[in-house]
Amino acid sequence: MATLSNLYIDQGSDYSSIITLNNQDGTPLNLTNHTLAAQFRKSYNSSSSTNFDVSVYNGALGQIRLRLSASASSAVSAGRYLYDVETTVGSEKKRVLEGIVVLSPEITR
Questions:
Q1: How far apart, in Å, are the Cα atoms of 40 and each of 10, 49, 71, 89, 98?
Q2: pLDDT tens across 46-102, in order?
Q3: Contact between 101 and 52 (Cβ < 8 Å)
Q4: What mean pLDDT comes out for the span 6-32?
Q5: Of 46, 77, 78, 108, which residue has the fewest beta carbons closer than 10 angstroms?
Q6: How many Å separate Cα 45 from the centre of its chain?
Q7: Closest of 104, 99, 106 to residue 79, by C-alpha
Q8: Neighbour-count burial for 57-91, b at 16+ CB within 10 Å, e otherwise
Q9: Which residue from 45, 55, 40, 44 is spatially nearest to 102, judged by alpha carbons?
Q10: DSSP structure class, residue 61
């Protein structure tokens, strides 16, 4: 089952967060040799999405880094979105993280 974590991002700002993922027994999820992908979209059925830049930060400790550039966050309307992170190792794909993205509106442009 995926870890639940909500994200709060300021529109027009760079965003970066390091998130630790654990197994169900509380030990770090070993992400060595895993490939990651992450997107957010307005609803599950939305055809348009925005990609996060996601990478393994420390695989042995189960840490990933999610990033979104200021230009990418400016290009999306403020509001509430859904996101997830999937990992692939070999032929196995798993959702490891999911939640809500709240994109607060930019005032200064």
A1: 15, 6, 16, 22, 10
A2: 999 999 999 999 999 999 999 999 999 999 999 999 999 999 999 999 999 999 999
A3: no
A4: 95
A5: 108
A6: 18
A7: 104
A8: beeeebbbbbebeeebbeebeeeebbbbbbbeeee
A9: 40
A10: G
Domains and CATH numbers, the chain: 3-104 (2.60.40.10)
**Tokens encoding 46:** 């939305």
Tokens encoding 19: 């998130």
Residue 68 carries which side chain, given as an amino acid letter?
A: L
Longest CA–CA span in the chain (Å) reads 46
Contact 52, 37 (CB under 8 A): no
Of how many residues is the chain composed?
109
Query: What gap in Å lies between CA 80 and CA 40, rounded to an integer?
Result: 10
